[in-house]
Amino acid sequence: MGAFKLQDCHKKTIADICTYYKNEPGNLIKILYSAQREFGYLPEDIQREVARILNISVAKVYGVVSFYSFFTMTPKGKYPISVCMGTACYVRGAEKVLDELKSQLNIKVGGVTEDGKFSLDCLRCVGACGLAPVMLIGEKVYGRLEASKIKEILDSYE
Amino acid sequence: MAQYKMHLLVCGGTGCRASQSERIAGNLKEEIKNLGLENEAQVVITGCFGFCEKGPIVKIVPDNTFYTQVKPEDCKEIISEHVLKGRKVTRLLYEDPSTKEHISDSKHMGFYQKQIRIALRNCGFINPENIDEYIARDGYAALGKALTEMTPQQVIDQIKKSGLRGRGGGGFPTGLKWEIAAGNKADQKYVVCNADEGDPGAFMDRSILEGDPHSIIEAMAICGYCIGATKGIVYIRAEYPLAIQRLKIAARQCREYGLLGADIMGSGFDFDIELRYGAGAFVCGEETALIHSMEGLRGEPTVKPPFPAQSGYMGKPTNVNNVETFANVPAILLKGAEWFSSIGTEKSKGTKVFALAGKINNVGLIEVPMGTTLREVIFEIGGGIKDGKKFKAVQTGGPSGGCLTEKHLDTPIDFDNLIAAGSMMGSGGMIVMDEDDCMVSVAKFYLEFTVDESCGKCAPCRVGNKRLHEMLEKICSGKGTIEDVEYLKNLGAVIKDTALCGLGQTSPNPVLSTIEHFYDEYKAHVTERICPAGQCKALKLYTILADKCTGCTACSRSCPVGAISGEKRQPHVIDADKCIRCGACYDKCKFTAIHVQ
Description:
The complex is a heterodimer of chains A (158) and B (597).
Chain A: H1 8-20, H2 28-39, H3 44-54, H4 58-67, E1 79-84, H5 87-91, H6 94-105, E2 118-123, E3 135-137, E4 140-142, H7 150-155
Parallel strand pairs in A: 1-2
Antiparallel strand pairs in A: 1-3, 3-4
Helix pairs in contact in A: 1-2, 1-3, 2-3, 3-4
Chain B: E1 6-11, H1 14-18, H2 21-34, E2 41-46, E3 58-61, E4 65-67, H3 75-85, E5 94-95, E6 102-103, H4 110-113, H5 131-136, H6 141-149, H7 152-162, H8 174-183, E7 190-195, H9 204-211, H10 213-227, E8 231-237, H11 241-257, E9 272-278, H12 287-294, E10 318-322, H13 323-335, H14 337-341, E11 351-358, E12 364-369, H15 374-381, E13 391-396, E14 402-405, H16 415-420, E15 429-434, H17 439-453, H18 459-476, H19 482-498, H20 502-506, H21 509-517, H22 519-528, E16 542-544, H23 554-558, E17 564-565, E18 573-574, H24 584-588, E19 594-596
Parallel strand pairs in B: 1-2, 7-8, 7-10, 8-9, 11-15
Antiparallel strand pairs in B: 1-3, 3-4, 5-6, 11-12, 13-14, 13-15, 16-19, 17-18
Helix pairs in contact in B: 2-3, 6-10, 6-13, 7-8, 7-10, 9-11, 10-13, 17-18, 17-21, 18-19, 19-21, 21-22
């Protein structure tokens, strides 16, 4: 995947988002949230553009982006996988599920497969502890997982 | 409004939705239509019932039939048998694990018998997207009472008298907090609801917001009236899309009904709320960090004082309460402070919601009076340990809490008793562990979390926790010494004393409490190089039982490092020095001849 190039149309989208939030630096998190929804991730150029419009330093924007786990500076796969690493899932074997995913996809946590199909992340508690261990692919929740079920689930994504 | 004879309540909580509860609701509706019963029976998607283990759940009222583990294909039978002919579908009823009897009414289930639902009073009972259902359950009556019959001070006095303490973890008296905020003069004040539930394994705030969003809005308005604030902000995790959606719907309905906005109920009191999204930072549960995050900054805490009640959001007096705390407020005003304070223990009044999870039979969301013992929670409500294993520990309070053991089972749970036992209430996560869980690994797991979530502002937390984590890694990989355990204790004490905020000050708790209660386990790791629970990979010792080995060579062929040797049809042996403890031989052996210690 090539580096992100900021086009005029992107600039307009960012400007629109900022205007919607009154160009208010206090709304920075909301602005970044909307921008990430729009672009899927927040590469450096987008952060620079937001900083320029809000008239704050790029360091400040980067500081916020890197602080919160919700924001990402790398694109996600077509099907983002998130393994719940909450305590309930952990004691019911989430680590084994994660190891299996790592070896099946041959990527590390935070990585994306070469074909851009899957990305792998951990998250803390989906709130479905009754189904532990749990993972999400996109917004679909898979519960009561076992390492042996992983291949079949991945194969169902074309 | 149509008068239905029967209501089919389908759980719309996160767990049940993940098991297709929406499809179930759809199928039920379709079957009702097929049989022409549209005017007789109604399907309602509600909030969480709590009994997540047995989900998806469908409850039928007025006869209170509680169907568990319903599948989309069961819907036809439910409608044609139960709704049409009045015959219960026995196979879908809950089966009591000891008597094997089918129980139809949830009131008679062990899981619900000991529970008293105040904060969760409407969860699983009303349609959270319909304000009329909330109003029918006395919703907004408490706000009406406060605005028309009481002065702000009278309301504060009621809350103080009730003994309600903050449910987010700290346990600070709520009434006192309101009084302080009310006492500070300013042109603008704020009411903030902390819905940034970050504690892994706790999902009560989410369930309340999803199942009963109006109770939070009502309580925030009451709080606004008391402290003199016209603006309320709900700081909610962006990862909770359903809760966000339901809050938005609820707020919109309130504005339509004149329950939010200008001149509420003609009292001259103005109040409205807005939402702010938390973007995934555990430290934002801390009040000052949360306020910075709302201002669009990094969520770093600052030294108190000044307290938010003096100078909070935008430098104005701000009152921050947690979701569950707010959920109790309307009930207190309607039923009275005496009623509330009659429940619970001397210093902890009312009830507490716990998210019961881990190695337990009945995973779910429960609400019990303060003072209930751990034994009642784990063995009566929770149905005991999964797969008949032995209880080892229960972790309360999340990453800031500690592990409690068998000797604490009969301790009544309240704020002060948990702290005295080396743990804390926290937001109410309760993770049960059995004999297979290694307590050193559990401590390591929590430290991993804290290191990840430390904001990096103060050195004790940023550096100290990292050192604690490294030391635990060393112990789990079989390289630790007994001095390291002492080092953990000392460093833990220093971090507790010197860290800036609540996160740092409590982060060594999982380590310190496991060292205190499971010292022998730490000792086994460092002196004998054994993990008694068999969890630490590096400490596993693989051997071949000569009497069981047939010499099939399956193990030696699967070993990636050539650590297994032996003649065909002769017992093989593992070279412990070469072995990398991958377990491949264990998986391959058909004769259970590989022994793991």
